[in-house]
Amino acid sequence: MSITIALAGNPNCGKSTLFNALTGSNQYVGNWPGVTVEKKIGSYKKDKEVKITDLPGIYSLSPYTLEEVVSREYLINEKPDVIVDVVDASNIERNLYLSTQLSELGIPMIIALNMMDIVEKNGDKINVRQLSADLGCPVIEISALRNKNIDKVIEEARKAVGRNYQPIDVFDEQVEEYLNEIEKSVGKIQFSNHSRWYAIKLFENDEKATESLNLSANEKTDVESVIAKAEAELDDDGEGIITDARYTYISSIVANTVKKGRTGLTASDKADRILTNRFLAIPIFVAIMFFVYYIAVTIVGGPVTDWVNDVFFGEIIGGGVGSLLESAKVAPWVNSLVVDGIIGGVGGVLGFLPIIATLYLLMAILEDIGYMSRIAFILDRIFRRFGLSGKSFIPILIGTGCSVPGVMATRTIENENDRRMTIMVASFMPCGAKTEIIALFAASVFAGRKGWWFAPLCYFIGIIAVVISGVILKKTRKFAGDPAPFVMELPEYHIPTVTNVLRTTWDRIKAFIIKAGTVILLATIIIWFLQNVSTSFEFVEFSNESHSLLEAMGRAIAPIFSPIGFGDWTSTVATIGGLAAKEVVVSTFGVVAGLGGDVGADTPSMIEYTTAAFTTVSALSFMVFNQLCVPCFAAVGAIREEMNDARWTWFTVIYQCLFAYGMALMVFQFGSVLVLGKSPNIWTAVAGLVLIIFIYLLVRKPKNLSDVEVKRAVSEN
Ligand code: GDP
Ligand code: MG
Prior knowledge:
Blueprint: E1 3-9, H1 15-23, E2 27-31, E3 38-44, E4 47-54, H2 66-78, E5 82-88, H3 92-103, E6 109-114, H4 116-121, E7 125-126, H5 128-135, E8 139-141, H6 150-160, H7 173-185, H8 187-190, H9 195-203, H10 207-210, H11 217-234, H12 238-257, E9 258-259, H13 267-275, H14 281-327, H15 332-350, H16 353-368, H17 371-383, H18 393-399, H19 403-408, H20 416-426, H21 432-443, H22 454-474, H23 498-517, H24 519-532, H25 549-561, H26 569-577, H27 583-592, H28 606-613, H29 616-628, H30 633-643, H31 646-674, H32 682-699, H33 705-716
Family: Belongs to the TRAFAC class TrmE-Era-EngA-EngB-Septin-like GTPase superfamily. FeoB GTPase (TC 9.A.8) family.
Subcellular location: Cell membrane
Membrane topology: Multi-pass membrane protein
């Protein structure tokens, strides 16, 4: 028999872990129709007839966030057969708040009491039988992470299908009476499956939830009179009465069934004393990120990437295919297209795969052990002073892998302003593809100059760009107001789970490889073509004097970039190509440097090409521009989708371009004078002006401080 199960629960209660464990990898991720909240559907590994939906993480079913609305609409309209309420047993009190609401929907519900391993480790005791009796529904102790008892969840869910389900008995007689009266006066809800739910929503005056009922005028007055009576008798509004009742009920349940073991600090708390310490947290975070990039870019990057580039793609693939094509006597241009164009370009990108894979792996470990959630929390404490919310940092941290999921992760931010602002800045972080550019410079221009700091520097440039933009944007009228408060469960630290870490890493690597085989392949072919066709539209073997179409285009655009230090046509073409995908920046250098055709370890390679083409200052400026300017097409697409507005998308794109240009201009102009000892010129003055403008934007008074103050004063009186 085919059944549908909805997984519901608080954020971070382990829903996704349970979902992955139950469904394995056969899952479908999409958006809910019409809105951009993530939707995951999969089928049970051991029985494909059991369909499982992972609902967004929520704290309640009130209408305050998109996730809450999506969840309740799904539950009411799609009518899953069973709700599996995932409860974090180590945070049971908070989690049960949602459980009481879920049970009111009238859909059979079972509770999966997750994280029991932590409860046991802490020495706490939960009387599950009592809990199950009190709540009137099956309660199954599980550990999604350790794969314990999870099949039992499905077993119980099957048994619950079609069972007549009674909501958790939360309310005392008095409130119960009000709700009954409402049910009676609104005939159409009396016999619906969701009568209790609608009665409460009417009592709470939650218009969004009840507008579909189309109450008649009579029904409305009846409901209003019940509410008026309750408010007079209990001296609180409907919503307050209901909330209060829930809390009272939950604390009595918890007092009845949960016994805290030792009350001292857990190992996780002790670790947090150091890792989230007021003074140590940031230095430790900086050190960890240095270490991560050091391992990826310097240790793995150096030898492995050299080998992959020079030996694997250069000699084995490039040389092998080259001689194969030669012996097959194909036209020289075919040989050139395959060896120089495709192998040089796509190979140049894939050559960085070891670095990217290492970076993704280390990030996945930091995420899995629970460190990254702490960072969001620590940064919240600090960046709140700059008007940014810690919630913004989750998308930004995810953006360090790839901007597309980073931008999409902004969905968890309910405040519209905070959300738009986060979308605008999330792509400033060095994503995997930008890390290639970093690695290329680290191995060339900054090699041997103790350039190990270059990669982490780019990471912190990203963070600084986010902060500066945050401050600047906050001062405009559009973005004014305090950031929304940041609430988040901090999961206990735990040993990373191999499958989780590998799954996350592999998902990200896969996306990267697919991109290399599609967008980047296409881009390298176009670049090769433009490079080997002259301005008079004849095939020309590429050389310095060949005057290709590519060169002509590059030269036409290059003057725009000369004030920021890379006005040569190759870098221009690379930068433009980078808009398709940032990997194209590197692959353009690969094609132009003739990486694929150069067989042998001692022939000039991309590294040498780059070393010759850039100085330290122009390399840094190139990096800053490419990192901060508009991300790839895919990310712009995600921005468009999340902004859901063309004007905001354009504003974002233009803001990012101007911001990147201004920053790169300052880096190059001041760097030329201060580091390279060049004499100042007119552009130095322009850079000075840009600096003054930035400082002004940073320190000026917020645009509508007075408005905000007025509003506050009004609401306080
Ligand atoms: P979601 O937000 O509800 O989807 O939660 P996740 O599945 O992403 O889990 C949040 C965190 O809790 C992750 O770090 C998981 O590894 C961890 N976690 C999930 N289930 C368990 C469990 O049973 N025991 C422990 N110790 N950790 C868990
Ligand atoms: Mg999740």
